[in-house]
Amino acid sequence: MIELELEILASHYAYSLLFVLLGIGLYMMIANENLVKKLIGVNLFQSAIFLFFIAMAYVDGRAPIIEGKSHSVGEIASPLPQVIVLTAIVVGIALTAVGLALIIRIYAEYGTLREDTLREVRADE
């Protein structure tokens, strides 16, 4: 039984990496008090989602560009998930840039990036 699980894990290494990145990113977003580390966690979580889309893009069947003859080419990559991931990467970069700009502004205003300290300062105002 364990041999079968190890074989599945070894053959689907992209999914193993996906779950590791998801776990690390989620942990960083929840457990850290520092806003920069939270933003890094969001980026790791996004990267795991990108990896998921790319890993799901490989399908067995005919290549979409071959017309007429039915050529079985084996495993091909569907172009649609690649386009979606490319768009998501651009949105992720914009999100990171806006997040970093907000973090810089928060640090300039309050002098700290710790979430608990920011709550105390905001409660005093």
Describe the structure.
The chain has a two-stranded antiparallel sheet. By secondary structure, the chain is mainly alpha-helical. It has five helices and two strands; from the N terminus they run H-H-H-E-E-H-H. It has a single domain (2-124), classed as Orthogonal Bundle (Helix Hairpins). 74% of the residues lie in helices and 9% in strands. Helix 2 (13-31) runs antiparallel to helix 3.
List the helices and strands and how they pair.
Blueprint: H1 2-11, H2 13-31, H3 35-55, E1 58-62, E2 72-77, H4 79-110, H5 115-124
Antiparallel strand pairs: 1-2
Short recap of the structure:
By secondary structure, this protein is mainly alpha-helical. Helix content is 74%, strand content 9%.
Q: Using the CA coordinates, give the radius of gyration.
A: 21 Å
Main sheet attributes: strand count, strand direction, barrel closure: 2 strands, antiparallel
- Beta-strand residue percentage: 5-15%
- Provide the residue-averaged pLDDT: 84
Alpha plus pi helix count: 5
Percent helix: over 70%
Gross geometry: elongated
Give, in order, the helices and strands: HHHEEHH
What's the CATH C level? Mainly Alpha
Helix vs. strand class: mainly alpha
Please, how many domains? 1
What's the count of strands?
2
Main location: membrane
Protein name: NADH-ubiquinone oxidoreductase subunit 4L
Membrane topology: Multi-pass membrane protein
Pfam families: Oxidored_q2
